[in-house]
C-alpha cells in the first residue's frame, strides 16, 4: 500500500497532492503536553509512504518527523519519501567562525538516515551547488518554482516592454532566469551585501534603467523582508514605476506588510509550500510530476 501523509499545518498542500497523485491521504494527529513534549499519532502501516511537511520553524517539526518516520519503519514501511518544500538548516554550509556547527552537513546525515528520498523546492543553498552534495546517492530532488513565479507574472499582464524580473544576488539567478523565461521578460540580478539579519543592502548593475517599468522582485525566501525593502528602494532609485514581489517561501509575519507598503511594494505573493496568507502559487503540479517520475 502506498499512501500520502500530511501534518496539520500543511494539509492544504497535502490535499492538493493527493488529488494530483491519486494517493490516499492520511492526516497526522499531534498533541503537545504541558512540558512541551509532542505526541504523534497515525493509524497506518504502509509499505511505502510519502510524508509532506515543510520544515519552517523546524525544531519541533523535526522531532515529530523523526518520531513518525521511526514508527513507520517499525511497522514495516520499506520506502519513505519526504516532501519538504522548505528544507531547514541549509544556509550554514561552513564554519564561518571557530566552533560553529555546520548544520547543513549534519542535517543531511540526519534526514538521509530517515528517508529513502527527499524532495524540496528551491533550497536555501549558498556554496553548495547541488543538493546531491547534502544527500549523496541520487536520493534527492531540488525543484525550482521559478517558472511558476513567471507564470504568475504573465497572468498579471507582464510584457517584455513594461516588466522586469529582479533578484537580489547571484544566488537568486536560477529563480530570475526561470521566472523571466516563463514570463517572456528581462531578468536582472543585483548584488546583495549582508551585514546582519536585518542589515542588508541591494545594488543594481551599473547603467540599469528601469524608467516607467514594473519590477517583479523574486527570491527563494522572504523572512524579515529587509532584502525586499532595500531592493525596492534600489529599483525606485533607478526609475521603476511599480514594485511587486513573488517568493517561494514566505515566513514573514503579516504585520511586515505595512513596512512593505511603505517602501512602495503593493503586492507580495508566495508559493504554497509553507501555508501563508500570501499564497497564490500552487506547487502541487510541480511536486506531483516529480513523484510520478520517481
TrEMBL record:
Keywords: Nucleotide biosynthesis. One of its GO terms (molecular function) is magnesium ion binding. Residues 11-109 form the Ribose-phosphate pyrophosphokinase N-terminal domain. Residues 161-250 form the Phosphoribosyltransferase domain. The keyword Glycosyltransferase does not apply. GO terms for cellular component: cytoplasm; ribose phosphate diphosphokinase complex. GO terms for biological process: 5-phosphoribose 1-diphosphate biosynthetic process; purine nucleotide biosynthetic process. It comes from the Bacteria. Transmembrane segments: none annotated. SUPFAM superfamilies: PRTase-like. Belongs to the ribose-phosphate pyrophosphokinase family. This is Uncharacterized protein. The lineage of its organism: Bacteria, Pseudomonadati, Pseudomonadota, Alphaproteobacteria, Rhodospirillales.
